[in-house]
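Collaboration report, partner site 2.

Our partner group contributed sequences for two proteins of shared interest, and the home lab folded both. The records are reproduced in the order in which they were received, starting with the first partner submission.
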Amino acid sequence: MQTFVHGAAVWDVACPQRPSRVAGVTMAGFGVRSLDALRMVPHPAVTLLLEFGAGSSVLDHAAGRQQLGCVVAGPGFGSGGAVWARGENVECVQVRLSPMIARAVLGASPTDFDGAVVVLDDLWGREAARIREQLSDVSSWQDRFALTDALLARRHEAGAPIDPEVAWAWRRIAGSRGRVRIEGLAAEVGWSRKRLWSRFRSQLGLPPKRAVKLVRFDHAVHRLVAGESAARVAADAGYVDQSHLHRDVMAFTGVTPVTVAGESFLAVDDMAWPSRETPAGSVAGRR
């Protein structure tokens, strides 16, 4: 267990001692005594939040205040910067699922929760309550990670895989950190553009163009958090110029690159998700 301190944020953070048995799964544990106005920054992975214990958190967003608990959020959740989390005495295991495996693990298409948070009970029924009870009954974070991983592995094994062509297109996008010409993806897999776009969205939860922008954005903002200049990030990350980066950051977060560089949601990643060779929880690496 480590302590993350960033401005007013003071969180306990735990990481698994070994990688998940399922490629494309990463997780971290959080203990937060007071969570005050945490901006949700869009991320390319599907997020599975498993809360347990006496505390609770809520989301404030355009649709109104929503209790969290055990929930799922699709890729890019929080776009526009208008979603904030608050809570007290929050304990949770946060899982990031590569879009390549999310459908198999969740038992539903990611399009079912595009841009929204879905209560896990609605997807898993009694199994959601069972994992919450199991997490509450153990005191070790490593035991909690093991329980979570066993559940995810069982569901992944029973779930349906995505098309190999869709998987290949996602790997191209993630592996290039969003620096790929989407016009050529269909030709490279031997499909029509319409077929690839339809299958990609239905199986991964977002269209290819949105995936490219989200992966590129995710890479760029983490470099901003690391202290790199906006001009250098824009040049290296594939933006036309610094104004292009500025527009993308504003579209995804509602704030400027200077402001987003100080977001706790992003700053904790180096501690909670220490290995980030490839973006978006892709199967090729841990996020």
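Second partner submission, folded after the first:
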Amino acid sequence: MTEDDLPVTLADVLAARRRIAPYLRPTPTHRYPSLDRELGLEVWVKHENHQPVGAFKVRGGVNLIARMPAEQRAAGVIAASTGNHGQSVAFAARLFGVHAIVAVPEGANPTKVQAMRDLGAEVVVHGESYDDARLWVEEEAARRGYRYIHSGNEPDLIAGVGTLTFEMLEVQPELDVLFVPVGGGSGAAGAAIVAGALRPGLRVVGVQAEGAPAAYLSWKQGRPVEAPAHTFAEGLATGVPFELPQRILRARLDDFVLVSDEDIQAAVRLYLEHTHNLAEGAGAAALAAARRHADGLRGRRVGVVLSGGNLSPEQLREVLGCA
């Protein structure tokens, strides 16, 4: 599949970069000597935890709502989320004066839920899982005429989040391997598009939790595969694959790996100790994969996307083993 055949291209990413520039500053890409020593690798960390909402998805939300026609903005937007997508929609909606409704599952990260409310979104708790909330949102959007913003099947979201990989390659254009966490897959899809166009030798590797492998299994088998979603990292807890990211990942992703919740929690601790940054579960997944596969990465320049830092106090206590 050529770039012209893809539903999102490098030109879309570059347009998104210009569109979001007035509202979002580039985030840092840093290297830490003590983290290099701990892993035995040259590791470059992309700090999306420094975004205004603490996560990478805000890039896509701003890009999408900035492009919406006036009649859609007037009708309002609706989304389902375990947290970071909802914050992205809420942030962008407030920026452009759009009413936003976000449905979250029961037990959603309270830190993220409160952040959505603080940004002005109407938050509705519905169902036990993300997919329960998603199905309710789809029905409400059809019934009330809201613009439904799917967390993965949106070209403008993928183009927006693709800008983070563009920024990484500006800082370190000689990356050899890039690990990107996968929930729905928009981040990895955006990374694969940019890498394929700008640095074809860069291997982009998706990372998902062992307890929520739907996207991984779908990519491996080349067809949609649903799977249970039980993981500490709620940003990776998607039980149903998303068609648009999967289409891009099948064409462009170089590899896909799974990590355990124990791996993820160890990576959260590594970030705290060696970079003094807080990573949520999904945000630590890429580092967890680099650590697990370190023996095969010696001598390579390794990029990891710290996709978000919205860890709740309860989750932090669990990671640190505090009572």
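Feedback sent to the partner group on the second submission included the following. The chain has a mean pLDDT of 96. The radius of gyration is 18 Å.
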